């Protein structure tokens, strides 16, 4: 799974990405600082289940900090989007090609209203930030439309005759990661009941927009929430776009806290509403940290960066965290590590599918699975739940 960090230039996308991953991405107060996509590992976080056993865990494929399990997820910071990117303006072609690798999107916008449509600085609050949401929706929809329309006349007639419409459209959009079941879900809308050969230009555009929502779901990180006036603009944005989860965010604050934690100046777990200063600090640095606490954490409950990642993973992508172990009583691996691994899997994943995710050979050797909390065997049709601890039974 991969989360794409998107938006117009100069909104704090790369700061958001760096705060989430600590990858050394270039940051600057000007358009098109990001040229090539940055890739890195972020983390999905939640309370670790080791607390139930009253013992410390020993994570191998993830981390655990102060009782918070941090599970890796891939992140992508793509070049900034400008109006008419779908026609190749700015770095449009590169942006769109990079963006389509992602399974879900975090749209980082400048809630201070101090950057125009192309990312140039303007007076604070002078730019209407709702325009950013509208133009990003438009750009991605038109990009998909352009791909969909390649040989559309021939394709639509063929689809209308064959009747296998969803499969044909999914093949046309396979480069975007669009799946047949997503096309089927979109086509349940009465708008698309006509034969594809009878679809108007408006219908094609509506389909392109709908398939983006289904295949590339999006959350909005309203960045620079600590700037005066941003809170009111964010509230207005929420009213204008109720279909989106909109998270007040301060990427600069998160990055400062992550770096301070890395150097041992503070103790901080991403997503927390507070931090602990563990070293005596110069006045200016102490003042900066006090500002983060008072203007961001006390007001919003977090910097918003980790919240946006978690909501993208759990809500938009429908992932759940599962802990496979070998010893169902002590929750240990065969090597004696307590809760060593955490896997993020899609809701609806069954135990046999989980076995295949852990190791391809395990699916072939699968015998059954045990719920380690109850000690009872679970059926192959069981849907893995968040924070399940499961033992996979295998043939020798």
How would you describe this structure to a colleague?
By secondary structure, this protein is an alpha/beta fold. It folds into three domains: 1-37 and 78-129 and 217-317, Rossmann fold, CATH 3.40.50.300; 149-210, no CATH class; 319-394, Beta-grasp domain (Ubiquitin-like (UB roll), Roll). The chain is built from 13 helices and 14 strands. Strands 1, 2, 3, 4, 5, 6 and 7 form a seven-stranded mixed β-sheet that branches. A five-stranded mixed β-sheet has the order 11-10-14-12-13. Strand 6, helix 8 and strand 7 form a beta-alpha-beta unit. Helix 3 (130-148) packs across helix 7 (201-215) and helix 5 (165-172) packs across helix 6 (180-186). Mean pLDDT is 90; it is low at 25-34.
């Amino acid at each position: 799974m991969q989360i794409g960090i998107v938006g117009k230039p100069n909104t704090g996308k790369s700061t958001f990405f760096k705060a989430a991953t600590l990858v050394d991405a270039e940051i600057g107060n000007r358009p098109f600082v990001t040229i090539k996509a940055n890739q890195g590992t972020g983390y999905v976080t939640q309370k670790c289940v080791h607390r139930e056993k009253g013992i410390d865990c020993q994570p191998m494929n993830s981390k655990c900090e102060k009782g918070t399990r941090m599970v890796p997820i891939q992140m992508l910071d793509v070049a900034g989007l400008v109006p008419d990117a779908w026609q190749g303006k700015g770095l449009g072609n590169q942006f769109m090609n990079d963006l389509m690798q992602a399974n879900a999107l975090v749209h980082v916008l400048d809630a201070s209203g101090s950057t125009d449509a192309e990312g140039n600085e303007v007076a604070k609050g002078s730019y209407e930030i709702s325009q950013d949401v509208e133009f990003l929706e438009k750009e991605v929809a038109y990009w998909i439309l352009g791909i969909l329309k390649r040989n559309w006349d021939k394709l639509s007639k063929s689809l209308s005759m064959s009747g296998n419409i969803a499969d044909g459209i999914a093949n046309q959009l396979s480069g975007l990661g669009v799946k047949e079941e997503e096309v089927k879900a979109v086509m349940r809308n009465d708008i698309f009941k006509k034969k594809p050969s009878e679809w108007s230009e408006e219908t094609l555009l509506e389909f392109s927009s709908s398939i983006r929502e289904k295949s590339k779901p999006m959350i909005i990180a309203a960045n620079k929430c600590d700037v005066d006036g941003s809170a009111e603009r964010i509230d207005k944005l929420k009213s204008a776009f109720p279909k989106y989860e909109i998270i007040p965010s301060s990427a600069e604050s998160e990055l400062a806290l992550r770096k301070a934690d890395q150097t041992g100046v503070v103790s901080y777990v991403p997503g927390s509403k507070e931090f602990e200063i563990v070293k005596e600090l110069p006045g200016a640095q102490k003042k900066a940290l006090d500002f983060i606490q008072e203007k961001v954490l006390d007001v919003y409950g977090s910097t918003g960066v980790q919240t946006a990642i978690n909501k993208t993973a759990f809500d938009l992508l429908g992932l759940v965290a599962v802990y496979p172990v070998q010893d169902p009583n002590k929750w240990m691996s065969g090597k004696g590590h307590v809760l060593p691994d955490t896997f993020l899997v899609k809701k609806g994943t069954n135990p046999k599918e989980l076995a295949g995710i852990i190791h391809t050979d395990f699916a072939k050797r699968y015998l059954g699975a045990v719920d380690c909390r109850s000690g009872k065997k679970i059926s192959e049709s069981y849907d893995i739940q968040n924070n399940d601890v499961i033992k996979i039974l295998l043939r020798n």
